[in-house]
Design brief:
Blueprint (H helix, E strand, L loop, with lengths): L5 H20 L7 E6 L2 E6 L41 E3 L6 H7 L4 H7 L13 E3 L23 H11 L18 H4 L12 E3 L9 E4 L5 E3 L4 E7 L7 E6 L4 E11 L6 E2 L4 E5 L8 E8 L2 E3 L10
């Protein structure tokens, strides 16, 4: 083997050093591997440095985190605490105070007063309204759920008393047909026909809530019983010019599609009095639509009216 000269030996050593430096520089930076030696095997795993924990200086940093936030439902509707209670009603789309009053056998002015309505023309859907007198007599609840009118004007009470005291001598002249319920005499009511003309349409609970009479424009419309005018106007859709009479704490009568109204609200009327003239307002022809409502519910007038001669 040929020996190297001193210069060649120095160059060989430098080449070895350069190779070592290149090898070291190509090694990836990172955690130093630690060897685990198990049963003669070796596997390298990096040693991870613990990461420092962030510390907040905020005083709420240690407070519990809410898993959910409450949903805001907005302000409650007036009277919402009375939903579902007897004597209260939740307003539905399309309702008016007049319609609500008719459906519950009350005067719209009384409902407005009981609920403190500054503007009776402004009511909201889901608003809960009192539709029974605040001082309703508990003894009358089982048989008359919408009875009592303690807040009504004195003239209403006198009307009821007058009806209740009708003499028995008047009964034979207006004797109802055999199908007339016995509770008419119990309430002291003896209804009369509101118009002498022929009947166009009979009572149908789903389609026609009363009787329709044919006639000529201007024909008289007569009060079916003594009472008080609780509505006279055209604010109830489908009824045209309408008169509603309250006879006692049980019965209302309604007279629709009139040409002219001859009475005003709060006016007392007597049985057979001319209260309107027949017309065709909000109707397809001249006719009188007549309803009898018992505690707000439409009933068949033919069962409460006397037999025609």
């Amino acid at each position: 083997m040929k020996l190297l000269s001193g210069r060649q030996s120095l160059m060989a050593i430098c080449a070895v050093l350069v190779g070592l430096l290149v090898a070291c520089s190509s090694r990836p930076l990172g955690p130093i591997p630690v060897e685990d030696r198990v049963a003669g095997q070796s596997s390298a795993r990096p040693v991870q440095k613990p990461q420092p924990q962030a510390v907040s200086s905020s005083p709420s940093a240690s407070a519990p985190v809410a898993t959910s936030s409450p949903v805001s439902l907005g302000p409650a509707m007036p009277g919402s605490e009375n939903v579902g209670k007897p004597g209260y009603y939740s307003v539905r789309p399309g309702d008016t105070l007049t319609k609500i009053a008719l459906d519950h056998g009350q005067a719209w002015r009384d409902i407005a007063k009981w609920n403190g309505l500054d503007n009776p023309n402004v009511i909201e859907v889901e608003q809960v309204l009192r539709v029974a007198p605040p001082a309703m007599d508990a003894a009358n609840k089982p048989t008359r759920p919408v009875m009592g009118q303690s807040q009504a004007p004195a003239s209403t009470s006198s009307t009821s008393s007058t009806n209740a005291a009708l003499p028995a001598a008047n009964t034979p002249n207006t004797t109802p047909s055999a199908s007339t319920p016995a509770n008419v005499s119990d309430d002291g009511m003896a209804f009369a026909w509101p118009h002498p003309g022929p009947v166009l349409a009979v009572f149908d609970e789903a389609k026609n809530k009363g009787l329709d009479f044919s006639g000529k424009p201007g024909d008289p419309v007569l009060a079916a019983a003594d009472g008080k005018v609780v509505y006279a106007g055209s604010g109830l859709r489908g009824y045209g010019n309408l008169v509603i009479l309250k006879h006692n704490n049980t019965y209302l009568t309604a007279y629709a599609h009139n040409q002219t109204l001859l009475v005003k609200e709060d006016q007392s009327v007597t049985k057979g009095q001319r209260i309107a003239e027949m017309g065709s307002s909000d109707a397809d022809r001249v006719k009188l639509h007549f309803e009898i409502r018992k505690q707000g519910k439409p009933v068949d007038p033919a069962k409460l009216l006397p037999a025609r001669p």
